[in-house]
Amino acid sequence: MVDVFRYVSRVIPSLSVPPAAQLEFSIKLHWTTSLLCSITAFLSIVAGVPMFAATATSTTLSVSSSGASASSVTQGTVVTLTATVSSSGTAVTSGSIVFCDVSLNAGCSGLAALTESQLTSQGTASFAFRPGSGSHSLKAIFTGTTTSSGSVSAVSSLAVTGKYGSVTTLASVPESVTGVYDLTASVSGYGPLSLAGPTGTVNLIDSSNAAVQLAPIPLSGGMVTRALAFGESTALPVAGVGSVTKSGDFNGDGKPDVAVDNGSNNTVQIFLGAGDGSFQAGASFSLGGTLAAVADLNNDGKLDLIMIGAGNVSVLLGNGDGTFQAQTATFATGDGPKGLAAGDFTGDGNLDLIVAVTNGLALLQGNGDGTFQPAQTTALTGLDRGLSTVPLTPEAVSVGDFNGDGKLDVASANYGTAQSTSQGDSVSVLLGNGDGTFQTPLEYTTQQASGSVAIGDFNGDGKPDLTVTSIATSNGSESQSTVYVLIGNGNGTFQQPVAYALPADAFPNSVQIADFDGDGKADLMVSSFLGGDPPDAAGHEDLFLVLLGNGDGTFQPQRGYFPATTQFGASNNLTVADFNGDGRPDVIPLEVATTGSVGATVLLNLGATTTVTVPAVAIPGGETQVIQATYSGDTIYSTSTSGAITLDGIAPASLTWATPAAITYGTPLSTTQLNASSVVAGTFVYTPAVGTVLGAGSQTLSVTFTPANTTDYAPATQTVKLSVTQAPLNATVTNAARVYGAANPTFAGALTGAVNGDVLTETFTTTASGTSIVGAYPIVPAVSGAAAANYAVSASNGTLTISQAGSTTSFALSNQNQVLTATVTSVTAGTPSGKVSFFGGQTLIGTSTLAGGVATYTLSTTPSASTSITAQYQGDADFTESYSPATSILSLASASTALTLTSGTSVTDTLTLAPAPGYQGTVQFACSGLPQNATCGFSPSTIAFSGTNSPSDVVLTIKSGTGTSAGLREFEPLSPGNHPFLPAAIFGVPGCLAAVAGMKRKGKFPRGGLLFLVFALGGFACMTACSSGSATPPTTTSTTTPAGTSSVQITVTGTGNLTQTVNLSLTVK
């Protein structure tokens, strides 16, 4: 308690509490805390509510196959269910998961519960199995612990499709004639009894006589039966005298395996299931007792084996691969342990063991690692027939939740005070408190010694019911065998036991619950240790008994199955699982022989069966023959082959048939080939028949000979080989041609020599492709068709000739008209190579090499505008030579070469200027040679070319003069000589202005003085401007264009001083 103060002092450093006060407070706090805890615990117990609320959880379910998510699989596929439990994002690692199929029962009770698996350290639990055909709705239920509440996953749907398996059997009954038998073939499907019986055909095969087919048997006329039956699959080679078998998936492959307790040598032998009803013998492991149960005790997802010894239990931990670790410890149980069961009785998520011991039940709480805490025993007592209290000895236990409170309960099957009496024989029900303790047992009297107990839902109400096997004794020997059914009320109580009689000497000590007939109702299967009465004709008694459920809590009368062989006379233990993956329960009875040896035979659950009998089948051969029946399968069931039976045959009639000579394909069969003979009279039937045309190759001819005397001779068959050679066929090809770069043409040819109306197709191949160079290439023919293999083809190749392809060459200027560019292209495909020469007229300018189909040449001087440039491609191996059109750098043309102009008017003409491709620069226009007084103009006056131009038009306008005009009079310039008033104006005006100013200063500036000054200045100006002086007389000028014809030259001037002209004839009227 002082630590409390240490914590406080760290939070509040200034707090100082004397040590004495600390001690006093600690004592008070200790007692207060203890009192509060005691009160809380008391209230929790009284109210039935835990002291601390369990945390909420969530459960998810994934369905996968071969590592991938699955919603649909085929019949026989292993499917893995994985449940994941978490709480607030943290994995829940303890507890168990119930996997169920709610399509069978919405409450996941009874048959709907597939299995229960422990959560591992990863917070997951998995279950691998092979579901039967149909639709399944799968769910995972976390049952919860004291610290984690239960939760349920969403439902996942799974569809299973495909065919069911089948099994074929063959039986024979000899007739009075040697070698003749009535043969009965039966085909059973591995599917629900509600399905249709197998259809199709059964073929009888003589496997000792080259697999000769004796007779096909159609099943359409057979008899169909739909009754529960089991067929023998395989026998397990048990190495010792054992007493117990247990089933589980020990290697994690989703297929049930079997563990057999070889009690005589204290070992357990493992048989690994192949999934088809057969098993592979595995290793054996030493036991410390008798095999009692299979469960995952250390929460690693791997099944472990639990044994009962002398006053103890022990464990072999599984490795998950079909092997087990050695036993390391034993755990005391008390005296006389017998049956046990595993379950979580304390709510900690680990599996515990409840063990039937002398006079009580011992609980061993699991630690989750395969070890257990010391046993806690609950005594069992009951009333004998004298109503006295007597101790009870439980023989077997089973666990379940009988009152729906989420806590496991226990049911035990009890003997009375002694196994030889019926005193106190009963079933005890102990309701669990969830903490490893139990309430006062409830007893249900059976009046017979109870031997085994199992839990199921027999009336479909979702409440657990009980079934118990028991025997009555008289004078120390068993005289009556019974199976009891107790219907549960859902509150922990059960209705009174209802007895179903078994054969008196059945001595059932094992009971299993499953839906054996596929009707969705729980059935019972009990072992028959001493066999049922009466025995069959051979003195054999049944190995097990089945009581089919009615679905309302009642059962039909028992029926015995599988009479024991001469070696084995009883079954001591039953193991039920789906051993062949058809979704139906199969059984392995552990058979005990009178000699003490043990056998275990796998019996597969059969569905509808079709049986057909063929009378009077003659077995040819004259000696022992091995006969089998092969079923062809149908839309529901797959194929199967029966085991072999050995029958005596009768001697067939002798046949002589020599190997015929070879024939050529197209030759029909005739008596030349089909010519078997016999010294006995009879009928020959050949296959193939006369007139058949056989394909080329080695062919088999067969004959069936039916003697007229069938009493002394059996029908005979014989075969010979006939060699059919190929017929000759000629294939020719027509030669073809194309140019380089073009696609190959459609080839043609001819086939000669086809027979028998065969339709053959000739196809062609060549090594030439679209890029193949000029040359000759072979055209190879090939022949195809359904009958092509029957011909020996003689092929004559044709020739494909590839010649040069045409080319085109174009010319353009670039780089400010200083570079000549030639572009050479193919008229088909590909890029020409080689050289290009540039000519100016007939003069070679220069030569350049093509690169990517383009050649350029840089000019040292610019040719004249009228120079005609030509690019000449010289060709190469694949392309012919070509030339560009001769192109002037600048060309000028007029629409009219002669124009007429009327005096005083204008005339227009259109000029077309065409530069070479790629030309760049600005051109302007001028004209010369115009007649007198005529002018010219251009619209536009200049044209700019950018290299991407095309020819441009310019409008030329020529205007003529319009007549005469009068000139203006000319004056001489002003000067003192010719203008006498000029000096006065120059010198007088300033004087006047000065005088005026003086008058102003003297105050003598009259109003009329200013007026005088204005008029004086005006007079001077007028004299200056209007004085005539010495003037020149006016003149007259002529502007008329004279009539006549002129040669006008139009000149265009471009960049680089390029000029081009055109002449026009201009007539003026």
TrEMBL record:
**Classification via Pfam families:** Big_3_5, FG-GAP_3, MBG_2
Q: Which residues form the Bacterial Ig-like domain?
A: 808-888
Any transmembrane segments, and where?
A: 35-56, 981-998, 1010-1031
Ranges for domain MBG come to 729-801
Stored Gene3D superfamilies: 2.30.30.100, 3.30.160.710, Immunoglobulins, Integrin alpha, N-terminal
Keyword tags: Glycoprotein, Membrane, Repeat, Signal, Transmembrane, Transmembrane helix
Instruction: State whether keyword Transmembrane helix applies.
Output: yes
Q: Does the keyword Phosphoprotein apply?
A: no
PANTHER family xref list: ATP_GTP-BINDING PROTEIN, SENSOR KINASE-RELATED
Name under which the protein is recorded: EF hand domain/PKD domain protein
Q: Which organism is it from?
A: Granulicella sibirica
